Structures are given as C-alpha cells and as structure tokens.
Amino acid sequence: MPDTFTARHLATVDAFFGGTFDPVHYGHLKPVEALAQQVGLSSVTLLPNNVPPHRPQPEATAQQRLEMVKLAIADHPLFRVDDRELQRETPSYTIETLETLRKERGAKASLAFIIGQDSLLNLYKWHRWESLLAVCHLLVCARPGYRQQLDTPQLQAWFEEHAVSCAGRLSEKPAGFIYLADTPLVNVSATEIRKRRHAGQDCDHLLPPAVQHYIDSQGLYRE
Questions:
Q1: Of the candidates 54, 66, 132, 53, which has an alpha carbon nearest to the alpha carbon of residue 96?
Q2: CA dihedral defined by 141, 197, 20, 28, rounded to 10 degrees?
Q3: pLDDT value, residue 143
Q4: For the range 148-152, what are the long-range contacts, defined as Cβ-Cβ under 8 Å and sequence gap of 24 or more?
Q5: d(CA 165, CA 181)
Q6: Do the Cβ atoms of 15 and 139 come closer than 8 Å?
Q7: In three state form, how does the secondary structure of 7-75 look?
Q8: Which residues, in sequence order, are CB contacts of 130 under 8 Å at separation 6+?
Q9: Percent of the residues in the chain that have a pLDDT greater than 90, as a whole number
Q10: Under 8 Å CB-to-CB from 123, ≥6 apart: which residues?
Q11: Helix (H) or strand (E) holding 198
Q12: DSSP string, 90-117
C-alpha cells in the first residue's frame, strides 16, 4: 500500500490534472485532494481542455467550464487553474501541453500528471503516449470497478518497470515514475450528472454548491 507523506516531501513537484470538466464534480476533486494529502503535494493545477480528442464535444462552452472550475476551487487553496488548453481550437493532446510545461519549468523540475485508473488502462490509445514518462511522472487515482492489469503483457511490463510504491521517489528525478495512489473511490461522473440534469433530477450531492448554482443560473444540461 502506498505510504503517507507530509507536504514538505513533494513541495517541489508540479502536479497537473486535466479534463473536460463538463461539469467539474466531486469525482474529480475529492480523489485529487486525497492524493495530494497522501503524497504531499502543495498544489495541483487543473487544466480544462477545449477540444478533447477521445470523447464527444462538451455541452457547456469553454468559458462556462472554466467558470465552473474557478467556482469549485475558490475555497480550496490546494487547487489552481491554467486555461492554456482552452485557448486552442485544435484538439488538446496531453503530451503537447506537458512538453510546453516542461520547457517553461526547465529540464530539472519534477512534473507530475494526475490520471484515473481508467485512463491508465487506456493510456496506450493516447497520442504519443510512449513519450509521457519522458516529460513527467504519472500519479494514478483509483477508480471504482476497474481491473488492475493492463491489456497486454508488454503494457504490463512497461507499467511494472516504471511503478514505484514510495511517493518520496517522485522528487528524485524530473520524470519517469508511475505512482498508484490509495485514493477514495468516488463513483461520480460528468455523464451521470448530465443525464440526471436532462431528466430533471437533483445533483446537489454530486458537485460543489457554487457549481450547482452556476449550472442552474446558466440553464445548463437541460433538454
């Protein structure tokens, strides 16, 4: 089981968490909060994307999704937001964003990208996925109901080659490790929230109140 660290251990690791955030909800925020506490991250930057290459286009506009993220993290000093991907009109490829961040922060900075267990299992489908560990570490949050093994022996061997059980090792080098976090399984999805909204059902327990109020004020996710 992963070990627990205080914030001083990984204060020098820049952590990023990308997503469509259509809308942002507790399934995004609570596991990342637990991850940060568990491994000692002092901040996490959210990266809302504009044109996701692997899923349908968002229902909310880029500006609405950015505003919802800002509202969701307003009272959480752990979180920051970076809207660079929302400025693009082309698909948002994680590797390209991370390469830009690497150039900005320099070759020696420790960078980490947070993903869910579902994304780890499908990582081989990502654009230039083989290059990810050359520019960052991967911090993986558990997801409800997902299997533990990757699809092929080759992928499993790749994972085992890079996996570490000690979070302190993430500050040893700028990139290259995969850390599996023992985070809570928060079974909430944006798809579920949109479906509930379309059906006129309550979503108050699934996302921050400020986000719910914004969704209501904008009339989002209604038929």
A1: 132
A2: -20
A3: 73
A4: 150/120, 150/121, 150/124, 151/121, 151/124
A5: 9
A6: yes
A7: HHHCCCEEEEEEECCCCCCHHHHHHHHHHHHHHCCCCEEEEECCCCCCCCCCCCCHHHHHHHHHHHHCC
A8: none
A9: 74
A10: 115, 129, 132
A11: helix 190-198
A12: S---HHHHHHHHHHHH-TTSEEEEEEEH
pLDDT tens for residues 27-78? 999 999 999 998 899 999 999 998 766 667 899 999 999 999 999 999 999 9
DSSP 143: -
Q: For the segment 102-130, what is each residue's pLDDT rounded down to a tens digit?
A: 999 999 999 999 999 989 999 999 999 99
CATH number assigned to the domain with residue range 14-185, chosen from the 4 options 3.40.50.2000, 3.40.50.620, 3.40.50.300, 3.30.70.100: 3.40.50.620
Q: How confident is the model at residue 1 (pLDDT cuts 50, 70, 90)?
A: very low
Beta partners for residue 79, in sequence order: 44
Look up residue 170 and give its amino acid. Answer: L
